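pinned: reference chain
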Amino acid sequence: MFRFKAKAHYHQGSFSHRTRGINLSRMQREEFDFVVIGGGVTGAAIARDGALRGMKVALIEKGDFASGTSSKSSKMVHGGLRYLKQLDIGLVKESLSEREKLLHLAPHLVRAAPYLIPMYSGWKGRLEHQIGLFGYDLLAGGSSLPRHSDLSREKTLEEEPLLREENLSGGFIYYDCLVDDARLTLALLKSAHEHGALVANYTQAIGLNTDREDYKEVRFREVLTGGEGIIRARVILAAVGTWTSELFELHRLSGPPIRPTKGVHLVFPRNRLQVNKIVLVPTADKRMIFVVPLGQFTYVGTTDTDYSGSLDNVLVESDDVSYLLDALNKCFPSLNLGPGDIVSTWAGLRPLIMEEGDPSKVSRDYYIALYDEGIAVIAGGKLTTHRTMAASIIDQVLVRYDHLFNGDFKPCSTADVPLTGGEMNDFPSYFRAQSLGLEGRWGLSATTVEHLIHSYGRNHMQILALGLYDPELLKPLGPNCSAIRAQVIYGVEDEMALTLEDFMSRRTDLLHFNGKGKLEKVVAKLMAKPLGWSRTRRRAEIKRYRQRVKEMFYFRS
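pinned: its structure tokens
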């Protein structure tokens, strides 16, 4: 058995590299009700659901948590207005219900935002949108979000002065939500951990053994050191997204092939693409892309094209950039945006279930398969419905494999238990009170206070407490940066960040929303001490991160 070292000063409740070492050792010694393969939002939700039911759960992820699709979405919790046009009413209703629940479960991470649809079509197009938005409001039931409103041509231009005026007849405003997708996934995992689940990143499943009737075995490799081990569980649950087809082939399981489609986003400085609301922009192929203001930046996306390249290295290509720029420049003709205005990009893959036809019209519903071998697989779906997806597969597992489980488990309670950091009844009041109490204290700017509360919720106090021991940790990571040094220490000690990119891309999103700031040296130095990095390792982390930054601009090569 491969042994993982963990220092003695580990304390219950932490979520660090030491926790991970202990978890990997325990995973080999103990037996579990189920083991989850995949640390994206779906796998994280499954682990949390099972742990809350009183099940013994282990979860492994071959990369960092949320390093695949779950950190590369459009960062929205939404009902999916366009799915109404496809008459997928069940999915829209479920998504709107989940949107409302997430506003209460993670109010610091999920926040309402106004969306503006400019109308350039005739009265038929306007009527179609009006009916769709009326239905959207109706399906939302008793939502806490405002209902849609109609805008005249003049009011539409007042809201968004840069819009193309030619043929503009008016617009609509409706409401959906934005979310920090990677931090939502992390909050799910930390909540699972707090209720007893054992989780580990950089731990790859390399083999399954389903020959035994009582326990199945997952052989794993610890990616950073190469050590191997075995986890024993009554059932194996795979939530591996776009890698589902590989799982089917490797273990000779039958199931529908996955149709990966690529979604690309571009980030611009806010002063080059100034919008006041999230604007829906029509494309040449009659899709809609989102233009989203976020602090000092505006991001734009997404594309939806079939993909057949490497699942582990998805790049933004020149055709992707041209597609998005063409739509932007037609809708905002005075800006004349070009590739040189782009400050960062990201590209991810949607794990759609194979259907023929236009990728944008393929259902975003999910697929569950349960096999005699004691393997359950879930694929497809969307970020917004992760909670119901998790509840559905666990309910089905408990029925199908009832003979394998000992004892009674609690019913699903994930709709009622807030995620870590979200334990407040009235977030707006909490935010106002905390902001008034903290702004200007210890040199904290208003933007830093807002950033900390929205990123960590109630847990932001743990980060500020680090500064009481070392005031240097309350300093910003760099000029015009809202993130502070204490976040790096917290990312290592309480969020299981193991690499420089883990922190820069998923514990924060400084990789994409930092402009031209060079923060990697500062962050690597702060991470080095708690993680025990040598100078050589630190330089290697910086080099690897800079290569990642370079890859964001592959379309320029």
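why pinned: The domain at 108-179+259-355 is CATH 3.30.9.10 (D-Amino Acid Oxidase; Chain A, domain 2). DSSP finds 17 helices and 18 strands in the chain.
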